[in-house]
Amino acid sequence: MMDIQQIKYFLTLADELHFWNTSEKVGITQSALSRQIMALESELNLKLFYRDKRNVKLTATGMFLKDKWQAELINLDIIQQQALQIHLGECGTLKLAYPDSLSSAVLPDMISKISSVFPKLKIELLQLAYEEEEESLKNYKIDMLFSRDINHSPFINSKKLSTENLCLVVPEDHDFKTSDDISNANLSAQKFILTYGGLNSSYATLIKKVFAHYDIDSESYISCQFGSTIIPLIRKRLGVSILPQSYDLNNATGVRFISLPFYTDLYINWRKDDPNIIIKNVLNLI
Q1: Which of 265, 271, 286, 279 is nearest to 150 (CA)?
Q2: At 77, which helix (H) or strand (E)?
Q3: Are 241 and 169 in contact, with CB atoms under 8 Å apart?
Q4: pTM score of the predicted model
Q5: Which stretch of DSSP H or E encloses residue 242?
Q6: Euclidean distance between CA atoms 149 and 173, whole angstroms
């Protein structure tokens, strides 16, 4: 049966038009090369070369197939290279979910690092509600998840990346200047604009611990999924909030971040035993 190697022998001979030179170039004997060309002609039921003891010349059919097969082999090489890149995790698509607090500060640096090493990798960024995160990972809707929640699912692996302060975020001209200004009495008088999470969210539990520490009611005056939306509301003096320190890296103007004696962790999560080499490559980078 005709195969790619026979076509490559044909194309080399079509360029050289000399059996000895071609056999040297492709690394087989002249008699083996002659057999391969004859087998190809027999399989196609076509005459590809005029040849005698001194000369080798392409037939019109041979010239036609030379042009067509050269173009097809170039395409085939490109396809094989792309397949190899996918196999090595250098190309393909990574679907990555992340919390809003990473949007302007942490996430761009991470994506820049990934893209610099794997420039052909496509990255899809998504933000999900807490209740959607685990199912989205398990059902292959996303490949990896940055989260501030501890994941206890037996189907998911987690790796702690960093720890940072929680902060009380107030308008720039607020009476609270430092943590020494915060007390039960004056904090209980504030209106809070808080992010909301699921009932089992470890981050939501942490926020409740902050309120318990100051012995105040944790009821939210305004609830919002995204801290990046909360900050402009604080700037408008509609209330105060408790947010991770990383929001302060967004160069948020008109607000003040006051560190609290509480800390939030950042995790990367992925499916256990996932054979996707892209995930392994990304984990090695971060």
Answers
A1: 265
A2: helix 60-87
A3: yes
A4: 0.68
A5: strand 241-244
A6: 32
- 236, 170 Cβ separation under 8 angstroms: no
Mean pLDDT of the chain: 88
Residue pair 171/256 in contact by the 8 Å Cβ criterion:
yes
- Residue recorded with tokens 């919390």: 99
179-192: burial string, b at 16+ Cβ within 10 Å, e else: eeebeeeebeebeb
Please give the Cα distance from 12 to 29 (Å, whole number): 14
Contact 203, 252 (CB under 8 A): no
C-beta separation of 148 from 99 below 8 A: yes
List alpha helices for 88-179, DSSP H. 106-117, 130-138
Coil vs helix vs strand at 68: helix
The first and second tokens of residue 116, run together, are 């610099």
Helix/strand/coil for 114: helix
Q: How confident is the model at residue 82 (pLDDT cuts 50, 70, 90)?
A: low
At how many degrees (to 10) do helices 60-87 and 4-16 cross? 130
Smallest CA-to-CA distance from 30 within 48, 47, 53 is with: 53
